Automatic annotation (TrEMBL):
It comes from the Eukaryota. It comes from Danio rerio. This is L-rhamnose-binding lectin CSL3 isoform X2.
């Protein structure tokens, strides 16, 4: 939780950009690691305008940028007034 200054979102992606994060084993199919939801930063910024944030990492929230690929939400954030 950030102090009164609130949360600042620097970057966010819902999708997959690597082949190791959040995998279930055994993994037997090719992963699409060029999977990004273009509206992620906007959704996260609007949803996390405060001192704390709870947001579901799901297709219902971000749509499905790459059908059949397991996705995760990665957010780079900080507290307003503090350097990263």
């Amino acid at each position: 939780m950030c102090p009164m200054s609130g949360i600042v979102i620097f970057d966010a992606n819902y999708g997959r950009t690597d082949n190791t994060t959040c995998l279930r084993r055994p993994h037997r199919r090719h992963l699409n690691t060029n999977c990004t939801s273009p509206n992620t930063l906007d959704i996260v910024t609007k949803s996390c305008a405060g001192r704390h944030c709870i947001l579901a990492a799901s297709n219902d929230v971000f749509s499905d940028p790459c059908i059949g690929t397991r996705k995760y939400l990665k957010v780079v954030f900080g507290c307003a007034g503090y350097d990263r």
